[in-house]
Every structure is written in structure tokens, then in C-alpha cells.
Amino acid sequence: MDDVRCVLKNVWGYDSFRPLQEQSIETILAGRDSLTVLPTGAGKSICFQAPALCNNGSRSDGRHSDGRHSDGRHSDGPRDQGLAVVVSPLISLMKDQVDALREKRVPAALINSTQNETEKREVAERIRRGELRLLYLAPERLLSPKTLGFLRQQQCVRYFAIDEAHCVSQWGHDFRPEYQQLKTLKQVFPEASVHAFTATASQPVRRDIARQLGLCEPSFLIGNFDRPNLTYRMIRSRQKMQQIMEVVNRHRGQSGIVYCLSRREVDTTTQALRTLGLKAKPYHAGLTAPQRKANQDSFMQGRCDIVVATIAFGMGIDKANIRFVIHTGMPKSVEHYQQESGRAGRDGLDAECVLLHSPRDFLIWSDVMHGEAGQVARDSLQAMFELCNDVKCRHKAIVEYFGQDYGVMRCGACDVCLGELELHDQSSDIARTVVACVQELKQKYGAGHVARVLAGKSDKRIFQSNHDRLNSFGALGDHGPMAIKVWIQQLISQKYLRRSGSYKTLAPTESGRRLLRGQGTPKLTATGRSKKSADGSVSFVPAISSLAAFDYFRSGDSIESVAQKMSRAQSTIVKYLADYIRHHGINDPTLWVKPESAQRVLANKHLAGDGKMKPIFDHLGGEVSYDEIRITLACDG
């Protein structure tokens, strides 16, 4: 390994390896198949790049048998054939890595659809002359008969590195069918080893990757999934733009990513952030390739602070100083969340990851998956739902999901351990009601049915089973089934209930039975949201829909004109205007309201009480409209 350490120092400037890098490289140099899982930011690319610069023999002068120095530079000398082929799913990811290697004077190249025939022939000639050490290809190009035949003829491939290897598994979070054909590599190149690399894969996915690629007695090298420098907050979404700005304001002028579930939400959120004076750019598949590249480059080079994106923005993003990642909706798996949130704090410094979620997110993903996704995908969605809604340390939950132990009692870096969750003041009563219902249903039903019984839903199955006659029926009728399912999950996590069997039926544990006798202190969330912002302050932030109208108001457009341009009711535009007034601290209502009407409203503003306008409207005999009242009160603060 002295040869590799020399390369590590001379090419990358590092004096030592990060965890598991050395073991992964040793496996490659030994010619043994492997699967390496290193979370985002742990330096997995070096694991498959560095061995390509090392040959079997080295000389005391620091040069190899092919005349190449240990820093990757070439000198005149005999050729020692040996090529590492890296399989990568994205052209942009390949280009970024090859450009970075070339800057370090490493002989690397790529072949992709953006090149002309002359450029491709030049790469082929360099392979024939044995000049290249690393060749990047997309899976479909590598597996073309022409490419396979050429590489086989040259007898030059030392090993294959499959980057983003979770793409090979249908259980993974970014499955790509073309990846599954890579299992032919072991047949076509029996003398070459195959090494899979990914940043995120649960135990079932890891086993499936090895099987799909046909790895021969592979070494499994699994890094630590915990990112102690990240602070996780999982908050029920309410006024989403205000929640986003609470995070952004804690990181003014710093780099961040805002992930949205749809292109439309990306566009509206980007515009809202810009309206609020922030440097933000959108990124999604609906933009042209040049637009996406320009926006990504702007972010990477520090010309904009925030990228608002769908999950199309992700693979290969190598920006170390991202200080926050916000999800405006729940991802469909813990794997997705771990990888996307993991783009924060890659420099090892503190960073914040905030996930805004609602029960509606679960229903949306369930509808998307209906009839298409397998059980593994549904289980992944359920696990993500549980992560969002649990009262268990977020770090512990993520680490244990990936099959590792978490030995710390309190992480001190999540909303649960920081005491930011608001607990229901009737947690014990609600918990006993839920456990009693499970008992009354004779432990034969799952969480969904229990929740519907407790909510008092009169559906066909409940009637047929006579469960509408149970004492528990409607006992939590003030709450919807989704809220009750959240509490059921929290009771399972706290071991008052347990799931069992293929139908995941619920049953009380011994602790649950003691709870029915008045023993135990269960913790159930009141709203699922943070009871206070991290800095203890809250400022007014307009809703995203309101911000879309701000440019019109700023230009002096009338209410009627804005209503026509936005195809909204005038009363809706007046609400947007009220937000505009509050946001900019405007105190003169006469721009929109007759002076005498404004004076009458202000003279009777004490009647508004908790903000209701009807008492003023009634007192003035309907002579001043609701719109005039709303605008005047907004100007009064």
C-alpha cells in the first residue's frame, strides 16, 4: 500500500485515508470483487480512482514499470497495459470526475453521446497505446457489442468500478434497467474484477446488488451511516414559505438546497425566494440541458446561494460547504432522504437538514405507487413515514434503518433530542384509548383498520365486522385516521404495541398492558411540528401564492388588473395584497381604499378582536366592504 499512499499524497494531497478507503483499495488491488457503501461525502470516488494509478510493481525511484510516476504523470518507457473502466449513470457526473482527474494530470477519458466521431476515435487510440488509466462510460455504451468487443480485443481491462450501484437493484431508490445487464461483465471479462460503489443501500439492497452483478465471493465494506455534524429536523408543514425562510434566515449568504416533489413547486418556490431578495436558481428535468448546467455551475461557483430542485439535482454534486438542505415534502424512502440530506456538511462542519412533511405526502406517494411498486418500495415508504413522525432520535433511526448500531443515548443534533417537539398534553389518555382498541379488536387488525375504527369511519369493512358497535368506535373522532396512525407508530416505537405476521397485525406488549392499568408515560406529538424555531423567533413571511403577485403590486397594477392577469378572484388578490402590505410595512391604505372608509375602519378596529372582520362590517352597516376592511387592517399592522 506504500504505492497507493504515494498516489494519495501526490495526486490528491491527502496524508491519510478516510475510513474504509484503504480496505476498499486493497480489495481492488487484490483482484477480489467487492461492494463498498460509503455515505455521501466519505470519498468513495478515490476508492476506485487511486488503484488505477498503481501497478503490480513499483521502483525505488518512484516510477512504475510503464515509466509512470506515482503522482500519475507519464514518462517515456515501456507500456504496462491496465485500464479501470468506471460505469456512471450521468454524463454530467462523468464529465465532472474526468475534468477533475485531468486537472490533477491523471490520464482519464470518457466516451458519451455528446462527443463527435473524431473525439471517440482519439479515446480509442489512447486505449490502444495504453495511455489511459481510467475510462468512464454509461452502462448502455459499455454494453454495446462494439465497445465490449473492442475492450476484449485490447485485453486491457484490470477492473470495473460500478458507481451509483444501487441503480442495479429494483429495491434501490433509483433503479435503472440498463444497470441489470452489467452482470454480463463477469462473463465477458472473467479475468477482471468488478467493484460496486454506492452512497446508500440497506441490507436487502446490498445483497441484491451483489446478486444482480454476479459478484464472486465479494467483500462487503460498509461505512458508518451516521453524520454527526448534521442536525435533523422533521416538521409538519403548515405555512411552508415561512418555514423555509426560518431555515434560510439562519444561513443567510450560505449555500443550500431546497428539494421539492414537483417541477411546478420548484418554479413557484424559486420565484418566491427571488421575490424575497435571495439568489436562487431552479433545477429540474423540465429545463433544457444548457439551463440546468448553467444553474448548477452558478451554484457550484458561488454565484447563487440556493438551488431549488427536484431529485434530478443530486448525483455527483461535490460542493463541500452546503450548510442546509430543506425538503418541502416527504421523500419516498429513507435511502432517498439519506442521500439528499447527506449533501449538506460534506466539509465536516455543522449543517442543518429540515424536512417539512404532512400526511398528504404519504397518500400522494401511495397513489403514485399503486399497482406499480413492489412490497419493498411500499415498505421503504412506510419506513420514511415512520422516520418523519416518530419521537425517536433521528440519527439513531437512520443508522439503525441501515442495519448499524447507534450507541449514543442523545445525539444533541435533532429536533427530538433537542426537545423541540411539542408533545400532546393528553398523551397517556390517547395512548390508553389506542391500546384498548387494539385489545378490543382481538389483535387481528393492522394500523389502518384500528385508526379508522378510532376515528369513527363508517366504511363497509367496519360495518360488516360490527366494529361500529365497539366501545372504541369513534373514541378519537376529533382526529383523522392519518393522525391516529402517527400515534400508533409512536406507540410501536415506544414498545407499547407491536406488529406481527405478514399482515402486520397489532397487539399490545407487556408495557402496553401495564399502560391500561395506568402505568407508563408514553410520548405522543401534538402537531408533529417544532414548538419553537431554532433561534426562538418568528417573523411574518408571505405565502408562496401571495409572493407570485408581488411584482404586479410593485409595478402599481390595480387589484382588478392583477386578478385578471393571475386568473384569480378579486377577494383572493386582496389577500395577496394584504400580505404584500405586511411584508413591506406599508401603513397608508388610501392607495387602495377611500380615505373616509379607512378612517371608519380604524375608528372601529377594536371590534375585530381576534382578527375577524365581520363585527366591523356589521357595525358599519355593510357600507365598507370586506376587501376595504382587510386592506386597512393590514396597513395598521
TrEMBL record:
The gene is recQ_2. Transmembrane segments: none annotated. Coiled coil: none annotated. Pfam families: DEAD, Helicase_C, HTH_40, RecQ_Zn_bind, RQC. Its EC number is 5.6.2.4. Belongs to the helicase family. RecQ subfamily. Residues 57-81, 509-534 are annotated as: Disordered. PANTHER family: ATP-DEPENDENT DNA HELICASE Q1, DNA HELICASE RECQ FAMILY MEMBER. This is ATP-dependent DNA helicase RecQ. The lineage of its organism: Bacteria, Pseudomonadati, Planctomycetota, Planctomycetia, Pirellulales. It comes from the Bacteria. Residues 25-219 form the Helicase ATP-binding domain. It is an enzyme of class 5 (isomerase). The keyword rRNA-binding does not apply. Keywords: ATP-binding, DNA-binding, Helicase, Hydrolase, Isomerase, Metal-binding, Nucleotide-binding. Residues 240-392 form the Helicase C-terminal domain. One of its GO terms (molecular function) is DNA helicase activity.
